[in-house]
Design goal:
Elements: H1 5-14, E1 24-27, E2 32-34, E3 48-51, H2 54-59, E4 63-64, H3 84-94, H4 104-111, H5 115-126, H6 130-148, H7 153-159, H8 165-176, H9 196-199, E5 201-206, H10 213-222, E6 229-232, E7 235-242, E8 245-254, E9 259-265, H11 272-282, H12 289-296, H13 303-308, H14 320-329, H15 335-349, H16 369-374, H17 384-399, H18 410-418, H19 425-434, H20 447-454, H21 462-469, H22 476-486
Parallel strand pairs: 2-4
Antiparallel strand pairs: 1-2, 1-3, 5-9, 6-7, 7-8, 8-9
Length: 494
C-alpha cells in the first residue's frame, strides 16, 4: 500500500487519532518508530518514513517507541476485502501459528496455497514477510506484558513465543539496547511477581472508536450459557479451554482508553496468544467500523440504522465447535430455548472447572467434540434429527480439527459446512459469520433480518434481501448485525 508522505505527516503533526493503527512513522535521526498520536513532538518531514504496519517499520530497522507504545495500537483490519488469504494468515499468526516448530510452508499449507505465493501476498499487502510479522508480534506482545504485568521474564518469554529465555534477552538487547527487565515500569515494581495460573494477567486491547459496548454485552448476555459464562455488572466472564487445559477470562470495557481490559487465569502461559486472539475475535476488535459504516450507509435502508448504532460490532465465537453447536441448537427455536438446551448439554457432558476458578455461575467448560460424540444426547429436549446433526458435527470436527477456518471464498466456506449432515444454508452462513469470522457471510433467510428490514421500511423476500445485500459486499455480516439489532425481538440464534 502506497502512503502519501505529506498526508501522513499532517496526521502526525495533528496527532490525528483516526490514523492510529493505520500507519507508523520511523524517525531516521533516532531509529525509533511511533504511532501518529505519540506525545513527542514530530520530527522533520525529511527524517520521517511511513509504514502501514509495525512489522514493516521494525523490519526496516526501527525500534518501538517507549512513550507511545506501538504494541497497544489498535489492530485495524485494513487488509480485509483486498486479500482474504492475508487476513486468514494474520489471524493464524496472531494465534501463534509460527511460534513453534512449524514454518511458513506449514502456514501456507493451512491456507491452501504455496509458500512462495504466501510470501508474495504478504509483501504485496503488508510490505513484509510472514516471519517478520510473527517476530514483530512476539516483541510487541512481550513488551506489553513487561509494561502491564508482573509476570516473571521467563514466563513472558514463553508466552510471547520465544524459543528460549536466552533468545528473548538477546532480541531485546539488540532492539532496545537494554535488557527486558529495564523496560518494566517502576510504578509496578512493588507488586509481587506471580505466574498466570496463580495470579492471572491483565492485558489492555485497543480498538478504534466508536464501540457499542452495551450492544455487545447485551448480545452475549442474552445468550450466556448457565455454568459457562455470565455477565457481572459491566463485565463478561467465562471459562475457556485450550489444548486440554482450562481457565477463565474476564473482559471489561475501558472507554476512556478505547480499550478492553482482559483478565486471564490459565495454567499454561503458552496459551496466552491464542486466548487473546480469541478475545479479539469475539469482541471484533480489528474492525474499522468507520470505514465499514461509510460503505454500508450508501444504502438508504441501512443508513438510519448505522446512524443510531455507529459502533456496532459483529460478535464472534469463542470456539468454532461451540458456536456451531449453538447454531444447531437454535434451529427453528427462540434464543431462550436454545440457551436452555445449551445449558443442558453442558450439564450433561461439560467438564468441571478446578476449584478456585470461575466463581458463581461459571463452573464448567463447554464440551469438546469428543465428549459430545460419546454422550447420550437422548435426554436433550429436541428432535432426533437435530441430535443426529450434533453427532455428525462432532464427528466432522474430530475428522478435521480445522473445519472452522475460513477457506479462500465465503462460498467455499459455506459449501464445506453444508456438507455436514443437517447443516443447511442458513446454519452454514451463521457459523461462517461468527465462527469462521467471514465478514461477508449473510444468512438471507433469517427471520430476524427480514423483520429488521421490514421495520425500516422495506419488506423484501429472502431472495430480494439477498439480491440487495450484494451491494453491501464485502461487509454483509455487519449489515446483518445492524438488521438484527433493528429487530426488537430478534430470532437470531446463539
Amino acid at each position: 500500500m502506497e502512503l502519501d508522505p505529506k498526508v501522513c505527516y499532517r496526521a502526525l503533526c495533528t496527532r490525528d487519532a483516526r490514523f492510529d493503527g493505520r500507519l507508523f512513522v520511523g524517525v531516521t535521526s533516532t531509529g525509533i518508530y511511533c504511532r501518529p498520536i505519540c506525545p513527542a513532538g514530530p520530527a522533520r518531514l525529511e527524517n520521517c518514513r511511513f509504514f502501514t504496519s509495525a512489522a514493516a517499520a521494525q523490519e526496516a530497522g526501527f525500534r518501538p517507541c517507549l512513550r507511545c507504545r506501538p504494541e497497544i495500537a489498535p489492530e485495524l483490519a485494513t487488509w480485509r476485502g483486498t486479500s482474504n488469504t492475508v487476513h486468514r494468515g494474520l489471524a493464524l499468526i496472531a494465534a501463534g501459528a509460527l511460534d513453534g516448530d512449524d514454518g511458513v510452508e506449514v502456514l501456507a499449507a493451512r491456507l491452501g496455497i504455496g509458500e512462495r505465493q504466501l510470501r508474495r501476498l504478504f509483501d504485496q499487502h503488508l510490505g513484509v514477510s510472514p516471519i517478520a510479522v510473527a517476530q514483530t508480534r512476539r516483541v510487541l506482545f512481550a513488551k506489553q506484558l513487561i509494561h502491564d504485568s508482573r509476570l516473571p521474564m521467563s514466563e513472558i518469554a514463553i508466552a510471547a513465543g520465544f524459543g528460549s529465555v536466552r533468545r528473548f534477552n538477546e532480541t531485546f538487547r539488540q532492539l532496545f539496547r537494554r535488557p527486558p527487565s529495564a523496560l518494566r515500569r517502576k510504578a509496578v515494581v512493588a507488586l509481587p511477581e506471580g505466574s498466570v495460573a496463580a495470579m492471572g494477567v491483565t492485558v489492555r486491547l485497543r480498538y478504534r472508536a466508536p464501540y457499542d459496548w452495551p450492544a455487545m454485552l447485551a448480545f452475549l448476555g442474552t445468550r450466556a450459557i448457565d455454568g459457562v459464562e455470565r455477565i457481572e455488572g459491566e463485565c463478561y466472564v467465562r471459562s475457556v479451554a485450550h489444548d486440554g487445559a482450562v481457565g477463565t477470562v474476564e473482559v471489561a470495557h475501558v472507554p476512556e482508553r478505547d480499550s478492553l481490559a482482559v483478565a486471564i487465569r490459565f495454567p499454561c502461559v503458552r496459551a496466552l496468544p491464542a486466548i487473546i486472539a480469541r478475545v479479539r475475535r469475539v469482541f471484533d476488535l480489528g474492525a474499522d467500523v468507520a470505514s465499514i459504516a461509510a460503505h454500508l450507509a450508501r444504502d438508504r435502508m441501512l443508513a438510519p440504522l448505522i446512524a443510531r448504532r455507529p459502533g456496532l460490532r459483529v460478535p464472534g465465537g469463542w470456539d468454532g465447535f461451540e458456536l456451531a453447536v449453538r447454531a444447531v441448537l437454535g434451529q427453528q427455536v427462540t434464543v431462550a430455548a436454545a440457551r436452555r438446551l445449551a445449558g443442558q448439554l453442558v450439564a450433561l457432558c461439560g467438564a468441571a472447572l478446578p476449584a478456585g476458578l470461575g466463581g458463581p455461575g461459571v463452573m464448567r467448560v463447554f464440551p469438546d467434540a469428543a465428549r459430545v460424540a460419546a454422550a447420550d444426547l437422548s435426554t436433550l429436549g429436541m428432535p432426533a434429527a437435530r441430535r443426529a446433526t450434533l453427532v455428525a458435527l462432532a464427528h466432522a470436527v474430530l475428522a478435521e480439527p480445522r473445519l472452522f477456518e475460513p477457506l479462500a471464498t465465503i462460498e467455499d466456506t459455506v459449501a464445506r459446512l453444508r456438507a455436514i449432515r443437517g447443516v443447511g444454508d442458513w446454519t452454514a452462513h451463521y457459523i461462517a459469520l461468527r465462527a469462521a469470522r467471514e465478514p461477508d457471510a449473510f444468512p438471507a433467510s433469517d427471520l430476524g433480518l427480514l423483520r429488521g428490514a421490514a421495520r425500516n421500511g422495506a419488506r423484501p423476500s429472502p431472495a430480494e434481501l439477498a439480491a440487495r445485500a450484494e451491494r453491501w459486499r464485502p461487509w454483509r455480516a455487519y449489515a446483518a448485525q445492524h438488521l438484527w439489532a433493528a429487530d426488537a425481538e430478534p430470532r437470531a440464534t446463539m
